[in-house]
Amino acid sequence: MSGRRQKNQPEQEVLAFPAESRSDAPKAAEQGTETLMAKRQSESLAGTERLMEEVCELENCKQALQRVKANKGSPGVDGMTVDELSEYLKQHGLKIGEQLRSGTYQPQPVRRVEIPKPDGSGMRKLGIPCVLDRFVQQAVLQVLQKCWDPTFSEHSHGFRPGRSAKQAVHKAQQYIAEGYRWVVDLDLEKFFDRVNHDRLLAAVAERVADKRMLKLIRAFLKAGVMEDGLVSAVDEGTPQGGPLSPLLSNLVLDELDRELERRGHRFVRYADDCNVYVGSERAGQRVMESVTRFITHQLKLKVNQTKSAVARPGQRKFLGFSFTREREPRRRIAPKAIARFKERIREQTRRTRGISLAQMVKQIGTYLRGWLGYFGDCQTPSVLQRLEAWLRRRLRSVVWKQWKQGRTRFRELRKRHVSQDLAAQTAGSPHGPWRIANSPALAMALPNAYFAKLGLPPMVVPS
């Protein structure tokens, strides 16, 4: 877009990728009735043949821009930040819209980064698209998801509007309560890196008639990866990090969902985590063998044999939860999720951080609210009570380290109404901070209410 915009022009207008106005079509008198009818017929193509026009609509672009801004994220290979995207679209929006409608838009390679896996089992490779490509992918996602999502299986819960990991865990719990007390836990090895492009594009072509959309999705898949300054081609996989990848992964695995439904299995899938619930270990072994064969030969993917297993649900974790072995199974936090929680708290309370206790509690509170928003759904409150006590002990240990000298410790204890004898005994103790943090003196000087006043949210809410 060139030239100075008029002051009364809405700012969002620059996001429009306007197509040729239909009101400008020649009149029948100039073209002839037959020509006009042919034109109208071509303009009323099947919905999937005009998807790119929907992608370029103003409202869709506004929503895509808002979502990309909200998600934030790092720059891609071109270095453009999320904050710079709006201004870039003001200047180049019309050109980008024309490229999309003509099928000539060319994505840039993704930037390869590696992050540690949550369970500490290695590194996960992410592909960070440039901000403009993220915007285009988001606009495409919003159009395709609206068309595709209603056709996906009821057993699929990941990356879908109105569906969540909580719902998947509850459904798994329901199957166990119904008597299916063995689980076939399937783990797909490097799923996002191994997706077969030909199979994926064939699945897209079955749902999309707009050749420009097919070409654009192929371009995103084939854009390449930049690592250490070098761009390398890719012939498989959908890079984790782009808005479109989760939808494409659901499309690939919809074939697995339909096969499991055809066989009559009770299963739950969240992204590439799939659990099938059966009545016996023997049945589980049969299902594991046959489904593995289907995934390998039909989907051209690989099952991770070391992480997959047939076991009791209480011995496995699913989306951070496991289940008790009672007649009415209860949701409990999986041990690995508890270990990750403690590791995060240790990191936030390490002595070398050099911040005040109030700042530390504020940061912990932000993390804790998000964590409780998910794991607070567990049905074993005693676990949360123990974690809450452990967290407060950790904070008391931090305060004890900050007081450092015995004279300072004695003075601070007395200031907090600890008796002189107990304060002297505690301040002169040879024990370390962790041991002292559990002492009567610190429980009296730094009660639970003290941390609540600093803003530490409760982990267990009395019913």
What does this structure look like?
- By secondary structure, this protein is α+β, with helices and mostly antiparallel strands.
- 51% of the residues lie in helices and 10% in strands.
- The chain has 20 helices and ten strands.
- The strands form three sheets. A four-stranded mixed beta sheet has the order 2-1-4-5, with no helix packed on it. Strands 6-7-3-8 form a four-stranded antiparallel beta sheet, with helices on both faces.
- α16 runs antiparallel to α17.
- It is globular and about 85 Å long.
- It starts with 27 loop residues before the first helix and ends in a 9-residue tail after the last helix.
- The relative contact order is 0.08.
Draw up the topology in text.
Elements: H1 28-31, H2 33-43, H3 51-55, H4 58-71, H5 85-102, E1 110-116, E2 123-128, H6 131-148, H7 165-177, E3 182-187, H8 191-194, H9 197-207, H10 211-221, E4 225-227, E5 230-232, H11 245-262, E6 266-270, E7 273-278, H12 281-297, E8 309-311, E9 321-323, E10 331-333, H13 335-348, H14 357-375, H15 381-403, H16 406-415, H17 420-427, H18 433-436, H19 440-445, H20 448-454
Parallel strand pairs: 1-4
Antiparallel strand pairs: 1-2, 3-7, 3-8, 4-5, 6-7, 9-10
Helix pairs in contact: 4-6, 9-10, 16-17
